[in-house]
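Notebook, bench 3.
Goal today: get a predicted structure for Transcription elongation factor GreB from Sphingosinicella rhizophila so we can plan the truncation constructs. The sequence was checked against the plasmid map this morning, with no discrepancies at the termini. Length recorded as 158 residues. Pasting the sequence as submitted so the record is complete.
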Amino acid sequence: MDKPNHITAEGYRILREEYERLFAEERPQLVETISWAAGNGDRSENGDYIYGRKRLREIDRRINWLSKRLKSAKVVDPSAQTDRNRVYFGATITLADEEGEERIVTLVGEDETDPGSGRISWNSPIARAVRGASVGDVRRILLPAGEREIEIVTIHYP
């Protein structure tokens, strides 16, 4: 990972907790189950053994991915933003489109996104278009539905 993984302190905590839970709890329990199942004889028809090995591979992949994301993490505190009149990482902004419909979004790290809750990646097309913008600025953005203009109505930081 060449570029830093910008993330909020809350997002980092959530990733760290998942990593620790998988590494310290789920993985050891699964290894114990696999060991028990292996001792039961024929492994080719042993569902506990087969499923356990498959699940162990999934957990190891997730642990490896989380480890890389945590190593490249750059925790950013949006409340420490000095220029609160422009849109940067961690800003909660209200956007109005051409029809006047408003949408509130918060720019967060890639691992924290939840579009249904209005948490979008700060590398998304919308976020890239509004980075550095001030209240009242209008930006053009290319979406799958076509090109649109959006206006920044409000900017808030925690």
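The CA atoms of residues 46 and 78 lie 51 Å apart. Helices lie at 9-38, 47-71, 125-130.
Flagging this for group meeting.
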